């Protein structure tokens, strides 16, 4: 059994030690907001926070997380009231929406580090997360909007 904290709830899992965190979240815990994109850490759709750091859950084996604190999109704000979630809606960021939970989680980590990032800083920080629909300008606007509220 591996113990960790997911969205402020202590959990134990009997998943195989080399199971990716992504699959524990989705299949064992039913937290389907974290998406499977590429499975190789190249798209960012599966981004979650591990001890406050944005991380690719598809590359993180569960055995490396004993005692860690994991935050998923569901844990960012259960009611969707986080400033980033509100800004995403206000700026009409999503098209297909598939990458958006990972985008929001990376943006939340950025704003935790820098509450007033410049456009270039946003683009640089967000670069590991890809959006196939190309809504990057709207993503930047949403991060800027949320920064004004934080």
TrEMBL record:
Transmembrane residue ranges: none
Gene3D superfamilies documented for this protein: 3.10.20.30, [2Fe-2S]-binding domain
CDD domains in alphabetical order: fer2 (cd00207)
Entries under SUPFAM superfamilies matching the protein: 2Fe-2S ferredoxin-like, CO dehydrogenase ISP C-domain like
Gene Ontology molecular function terms on file: 2 iron, 2 sulfur cluster binding; metal ion binding; oxidoreductase activity
Protein name: (2Fe-2S)-binding protein
PROSITE patterns the record matches: 2FE2S_FER_1, 2FE2S_FER_2
UniProt keyword list: 2Fe-2S, Iron, Iron-sulfur, Metal-binding, Oxidoreductase
Superkingdom per UniProt: Bacteria
2Fe-2S ferredoxin-type domain residues: 1-76
Cited InterPro entries: 2Fe-2S-bd, 2Fe-2S-bd_dom_sf, 2Fe-2S_ferredoxin-like_sf, 2Fe-2S_ferredoxin-type, 2Fe2S_fd_BS, Beta-grasp_dom_sf, Diverse_Oxidoreductases
């Amino acid at each position: 059994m591996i113990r960790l904290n997911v969205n402020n709830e202590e959990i134990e899992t009997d998943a195989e030690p080399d199971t990716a965190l992504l699959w524990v979240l989705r299949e064992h815990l039913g937290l389907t907001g974290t998406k499977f994109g590429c499975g190789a850490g190249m798209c960012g759709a599966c981004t979650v926070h591990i001890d406050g750091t944005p991380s690719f859950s598809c590359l993180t084996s569960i055995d490396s997380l004993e005692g860690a604190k994991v935050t998923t999109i569901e844990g960012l704000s259960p009611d969707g009231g986080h400033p980033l979630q509100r800004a995403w809606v206000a700026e009409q960021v999503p098209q297909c929406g598939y990458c958006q939970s990972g985008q929001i989680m990376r943006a939340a980590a950025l704003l935790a580090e820098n509450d007033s990032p410049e456009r270039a800083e946003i683009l640089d920080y967000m670069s590991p997360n890809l959006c196939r629909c190309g809504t990057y300008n709207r993503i930047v606007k949403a991060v800027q909007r949320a920064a004004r509220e934080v």
